[in-house]
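User: Can you write out an input/output pair for a complex, sequences first and structure second?

Assistant: Here is one pair. Inputs:
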Amino acid sequence: MHDSHPLASAALSMVPSPVLARMVALLTRIMRRRHPHLVENFGRLDHGIIHIEPTDLPHRFEIEYGAGQMDVRLLTEDDPPPPDARIRGSLAALIALLEGRIDSDALFFTRDIEITGSTEVSVAVRNTLDREEIVMRDEIAALFGPFERPARRIGRRLDRVIGLARTQVATLHAKLHEANVPSRDLAAECDELRAEVKALKTRLAKMDVRQMRTAGNAATGAP
Amino acid sequence: MSLELVCPAGTPAALRAAIDAGADTVYCGFRDCTNARNYPGLNFDVREMAEGVEYAHRHGRKVLAAVNTFPRAGDPAPWHAAIDNAAAAGIDAVILADLGVLDYAQRRHPELRRHLSVQASASNELSIAFYRDRFDIKRVVLPRVLSVEQVAALVRRIGIETEVFAFGSVGPMSEGRCFLSSYITGLSPTTEGACAPASHVSYRDDGASTLSRLGDVTLNRFRQGEPAAYPTPCKGRYVTHGRATYLFEEPVALNAIDILGDLKAAGVTALKIEGRQRSRAYVTEVVSSFRKAIDALERGSNEAVANKLASVAEGQRETTGAYRKGWR
Amino acid sequence: MTSLSQAKLTLGPLLFHWTPAKRRDFYFRIADEAAVDCVYLGEVVCSKRESFFAPHMQEVVHRLVAAGKQVVRSTLALMTLDREVDEARALAESGALVEANDVACLQQVAGRPHVIGPYINVFNEGAQDVVIRDGATRIVLPVEANADTVRVLAGRSTVETELMVFGRQPLSVAMRCYHARSHDLTKDTCQFVCGQDPDGLAADTIDGVGVLTINGTQTLSNGYLVLLQELAALRRMGVTHFRLSPQDVDMVAVARTYRAVLDGTVSLHEAAEELRGLTGEVPWQNGFLHGREGLAWVERELTPA
C-alpha cells in the first residue's frame, strides 16, 4: 500500500505534523480494515523497516513490518534511525507503483525510482504491495468517509491531483516505451503539478482544520 | 488449435491480472522452497492457491502449480505437501523437475496431470522420452537453448505437448543444474528456489556509476541510464583477456512475439511467459500484447502487432535468443 | 584406518581440450603410475572436440585396463543434436560401463549397471531410489551437495557413492560457447580456442578478483576443490569413491597425496603442504560441502551428524 501516504501528504503537507501524523494513523487503520491480507502478508515477512521518500514532497514515511505486525508512521525527526532500505521517487512514480500500474523493475532500471539499502527488504515490500489491488482514490475516499459532503468535495479535488499524477505516469510510460514518443516537457508539467498541489494544500489545510473541529462533535454536520 | 498462452503469477493479484489480460493458463507456486521463484513476499499459500484456481476456472482458464525445485535429502515433506495441496486445490497440472518428486506425484496422484519443468533440462528426444515413458508426463517445457528447427524436430518425434518460452529472461545455462548462484551466495536455486536471492544482492553508488554485487562478488558496473539486469551471475560482466564483457549474456530479454508463426508451424502447444518475480503491471502488459498477437495470428492477419514490450524487458532490450541461428 | 584404505580413488573425465598427444600421454602415465582405481574417459563438455581423441581411445582404454584400472565411459553433460544423442546410444549399446551425464542416457542404460554422473541431479532419497531401481551401481553426487545431503544419501545407499574431492568445480553447462565469445567468435566458428587454455580461462570480476574459469561451454570455479581434511568424515558417512578431476598439474602426485591420506601414511598437515606445492597459486575451495558459498574455504573438520 503505503506509497499511498505521499498522496495524503501531498494534500496535507501544510498541516502541522501532529495532525498529519494522526491522519497517517487513520489511513493506516482504514487500510488495515480494507486490506486485511495486506497486513497479514506484511506480518509474515521477516522484520524490516523501509522509508518511503517522495522526492517532490517535504515528508517521509516509515513502514515497519514483520512478526505479525505492520505499522506506518510519518517521520517527524530529522535524523531517524536508518532503515533497512529506502525507496525514493516522484509522487507520480510511487503512486503508480502502489497501484500496480507500472513495473517497478522498469522504473528501477531507468532510474525513475531509487532503491538503496537491503534489496531483500525492498523486494519483499514491493512484492507484498503488489499482492493488493489498491486504488488510491478509493483509499482516500475511505479516509474521508466520515465527513460526508466535504469528503465528496475533497474527493473531487484529489481526483484532480491523482489525474495529474496519472498524466505524469503516462508520460513516464511513454518515456519508458520508446525514445521516439513525441517529447513533452516533463519539467513544465511537474511545475504545473507543483503549483496545483500547493493550491490544493492550502485549501485542504483550511478544510482539515474545520473538519477536525467538526470531528470533535461526532462528525455529523456539514460546515 | 490456437497457441495456448501460459502466463506467470507471483501473487493472487497477478493471477487475476493475467486472466483478465487474456491468459489461457496461469502458473504459480507455493510460498516456500518448492518452487524456483522463492523470493520474499511472493507466491501463494494453500488458501490463495485454491482461490486462484476457483477464479481461473470460473473464467474457463487453467492454473498450473510449479513444484520445480529439487528436495534436499532428509526433508522431502514440503515437496510432497506441495503436490498434495496442489491436487486438493483442483489444479490443472503440476510442473515438476526432480526424479523423486515426479515419482511421488505419479504414485500418489496418478490422475494429476504432470508437466516437465524446464528445470529438468530435458533438451533432446531421448531425455524427454525417458520422462514420458517413466512418469507419463503430458507436456515438456523446452529449455531456452533450442532453435526453432530443433523445436520442430522434437515436436514431431516425442508425441507429447511442448511448451516454449516466448518472453522473459534469457537463460544461457542448462537450467536446474546451474550452481553459479550457490557458488557465490551459499543459497541454492536448485534446492532452495532463488537464483541471486535478494538477501545477497546489493547496489552501491560509485559516483557516476552503480555497482551491483551478489554476495562478495561484484557483478557489474553501469552508468546512469545504461541498461542493466537483475544481478544473476550469468548477467554480469567478467574480465577475460583483459577485457570486461557480458561473457554469458547481455542484459536482454527473450521476446519471440515476432516469430509466433514459426513456433506455431513448428507444432508447439503452448507459449510460456517468464516472470513470476515480476510485477502485476509487467504481467498485464506482456500478456495483453501476446493475447493480441496470438489472436491476430489465428485470424491470419498479417498486421504486425506493435511490439511495445521493450520497456518491461530486462535491460530494455530484446532478442529472439537461441530460436535464431547465431546465438550460440 | 582399514575402512579408509578400502576407499577407492577415481580420476574423473578430463574436462579440458588438450591436444590428442598430450591427452594420450597423460592417460598412459596415469595407467603406469597413478594410484587411482578407476578412470573415467570421454568428452563431457563439447561434442565438437570428440573426434580429436577418437583415434587414441581404444589404445588408452587397453593400457588402463591392462594396468588394472576400471574404465568408465563418460557421456556429454548436455545433448541437443541428433549426432550427440546417437553417439550416447551407441556407447550404451557397446556394453561399456557408462557414466550418464544427461538423462538421455538413462533410457538406454536402464536395467544394466551404470554410473549416474554428477550432472544428473540426485539431491534426495526419492531421486536416488529412482536411479537405483533403474540399475545404477554408482552415483556421483552433484558438486553442490552439502554434508547433510552426502550423509543422508551415502548413508542409506545400496550402491556405491562417489564425490568429487579435487579440481575446479563444474558449475554449469550451456549451449553457448563462452570461450568462443571471449574471442568474439561463436560456437559454430570457434576455431577450438578452448585448446589454448589447458587449465581453463580465467574470468575475473570487473574489480579484478578471480571468481570463475571458462572451459568452452562449461563454467568452472576459479579455485580447486580440495577435500582433504574431510576425507575421513566422508568415508565414515559412506562415500566409497573419491574423484580427482584432472587439472593441468601433476595428477600422479595429486593422486599419491590423496591415497596417502586415505591410507593414513601421511599427516594431514604434510599432505596439505605437498598439495599446495602441486597446485601453485590456485586458491582452494570447499564451501559447498560445508553448507557455504562454493567459493569459500573453510578451515575446519566437518561437524559430526
